[in-house]
Amino acid sequence: MRSRLLRDRLLAFSSFHQILFTDQEKTQSLMLKVRDSLKTDQEISEQALLDGLNILEEADLRTVLSAIKIPVLIIHGDSDQLCPVGAARYLHQHIPHSQLRIFPNCGHLPFLTREEEFNQALDDFLMWIGGARPADQRFPISTGKKI
After folding, report:
1. Cα(130)–Cα(136) distance, rounded to whole angstroms?
2. What are the boundaries of each domain within the chain?
3. The pTM is what?
4. Could you tell me the CA-to-CA distances from 54 to 16, 47, 49, 68, 131 in Å, in that order?
5. How many CA atoms lie within 13 Å of 30's alpha carbon, on the beta-carbon side?
6. Which of 39, 34, 1, 5 is nearest to 20 (CA)?
7. Using CA atoms, how far apart are residues 88 and 51, in angstroms rounded to an integer?
8. What are the pLDDT digits (tens) for 6-30?
9. Closest CA relative to residue 97, chosen from 118, 123, 76, 69
10. How many CB atoms lie within 10 A of CB 1?
11. How many whole angstroms from its chain centre is CA 83?
């Protein structure tokens, strides 16, 4: 990604956009929605983009996951090409009081491509942290269906 970004920024962004979605999710209206949401009046510097990539490549926070003491909702698409679903499962296994919702046939942006399911998962999570469960109970892994 780094070398592609340095060679051709527009092509790098276009390629990046493509891997955010499954083939079924790639609709004209959704692609425009994402493009419009990323628009900014300010140019993002090449250095800022490279710094961001460096953080993603070098930061390893796995050792501190077990120290997270608040409830955490992890929502992940099972067809995410950017971040494997195994990473979400790892987070769930190592963060106490976490909830993992995996959406089938979903890419990297379930909050855009599965708005209703995403909102339902968020509602369920808020109910869960609102006291509808024992304090030490782990929420089960779900395939996106209401539990």
Report:
1. 14
2. 2-58, 62-129
3. 0.77
4. 16, 10, 9, 24, 39
5. 18
6. 34
7. 24
8. 677 777 777 777 888 888 888 878 7
9. 69
10. 13
11. 8
